[in-house]
Design brief:
Shape: globular
Low-confidence stretches: none
Helix content: 25-40%
Largest sheet: 9 strands, mixed
Distance between the termini: 17 Å
CATH class of the largest domain: Alpha Beta
Number of domains: 2
């Protein structure tokens, strides 16, 4: 398909065209011309919109598609449709499946199922065998099959020795560890952030300490072993300070934040709506302010959707029995730009496209002539209302259905394919 994008602001800090308004001609999946004005051809699909921005295709570093094992909640096919509609041309599929992605065959299953998709899929293998937190998984075999990094997804590694060995081994194969931080001996059975709101609602709280203590432990292990570690979804002011200090001390550490943690705080739970029940939990207003500032100043490197589908049997329950998680691929960008008022176009490109690829060790994508078109098209001056009809996931566990948020994803282009919203 030949595509002509008219009068788009280029948002790519690695490109000499960054910030300029250009026309982009795409032929057979490649950018062939990038000029101030390109004459329209009648056989070209033309895309134009007021305030149109084009960046390198976004990459989400944390999604769960429930496939294999929990296809009643979601599938790879549905998840990839949701990713494209949300503006993502790449996703890291986490190991929270049944069974977990803990060997070569399961990594190959994900790669094969996603073959020829518009959205590039990067499987993340487990740190421990079967996510049991005891023995290291078959990291090298999984890497050879296509795993870019290793994570036990939402299961924090209790055994400090296992994290130590995982960091050492992953460094030896030029990979790294992604680990969720939550000391279960402190947060055990917690339902929401510990604070005034949890006390008022009578719900058992999850202290910020549970996250911060495990981050501190893992950073001290990293200082001892070397290697590289990524914290996928930090949520507290204290975590921000720990990561800021670790970066200043030269440790190879990066961090992400779930988009909804940039927008929502713990008071949303006053209605006992289980769609607001997530892990890490929605935190205090002070914490939300801290993570917003951390994103703006580069302490937090990436924004993720933390897409985690749950069927109605897992959510339409008493609050303490309901599972954590929301479907978030189609609202992540909107939450981000609604929550962080001072967010620049460059910061959007860095946290959604450039930094994820750098952290994962992928080749740098850029917007210039004679390269493959891997692009996300969006506007900041429009608003989006997410509806049931728009939802591409099999599950509907989102607090944003029917809500209007800032920003609009217009479409994505990758692998010679186009999806327009």
């Amino acid at each position: 398909m030949n595509i002509l994008i008219k009068q788009a602001t280029i948002v790519d800090t690695t490109s000499s065209f960054n910030g300029k308004i250009m026309d982009i001609l795409i032929e057979k999946g490649n950018i062939t011309q990038l000029k101030k004005n390109i004459a329209s051809e009648k056989n070209y699909k033309t895309i134009e919109a007021d305030g149109l921005c084009v960046s390198v295709g976004w990459l989400d570093m944390q999604v769960n598609f429930c496939d294999p094992g929990n296809e009643h909640k979601d599938t790879l096919e549905n998840g990839l449709k949701a990713a494209a509609k949300g503006g993502f041309t790449g996703v890291c599929v986490m190991s929270g499946t049944n069974p977990p992605l803990h060997n070569k065959a399961q990594i190959e299953y994900v790669k094969n199922r996603a073959k020829d998709s518009l959205v590039d899929v990067f499987p993340i293998g487990t740190i421990s065998y079967n996510q049991e937190g005891k023995d290291l998984s078959e990291m090298y075999d999984m890497q050879m099959a296509g795993a870019l990094a290793f994570s036990d997804y939402k299961k924090p590694i209790k055994d400090a020795g296992l994290i130590l060995r995982a960091l050492q081994y992953s460094a030896n194969i030029n990979s790294f560890i992604i680990t969720h931080c939550d000391d279960k001996t402190i947060s055990h059975d917690g339902q929401m952030n510990e604070g005034i709101t949890s006390t008022k609602l009578g719900l058992k709280g999850i202290p910020a300490l549970a996250e911060e203590l495990m981050i501190q432990r893992n950073l001290q292990i990293l200082e001892y072993t070397g290697g590289k570690i990524h914290f996928p979804t930090i949520s507290t002011k204290g975590s921000v300070e720990l990561i800021k200090k670790a970066k200043a001390n030269g440790l190879s550490v990066t961090a992400g934040v779930a988009a909804h943690n940039l927008l929502l705080d713990e008071t949303e739970l006053e209605r006992f709506d289980t769609n607001y029940k997530v892990n890490p939990p929605l935190r205090s207003k002070e914490d939300v302010t801290a993570v917003r500032k951390a994103l703006e100043n580069g302490i937090i490197d990436v924004v993720v959707s933390d897409h985690n589908p749950q069927d109605i049997e897992s959510k339409d329950l008493e609050f303490d029995l309901a599972n954590n998680g929301i479907i978030a691929l189609q609202t992540a960008f909107n939450c981000m730009v609604t929550g962080v008022a001072k967010l620049t176009r460059d910061k959007i490109a860095e946290s959604l496209a450039e930094n994820p690829r750098h952290i994962l060790g992928l080749a740098n994508e850029t917007i210039k002539e004679n390269v493959k078109a891997n692009l996300t098209l969006f506007t900041l001056n429009d608003k989006t209302t997410f509806t049931e009809k728009d939802n591409a996931s099999k599950s509907s566990n989102s607090p944003f259905i029917g809500k209007t948020l800032n920003g609009k994803v217009l479409g994505v282009i990758n692998n010679g394919k186009l999806v327009l919203n």
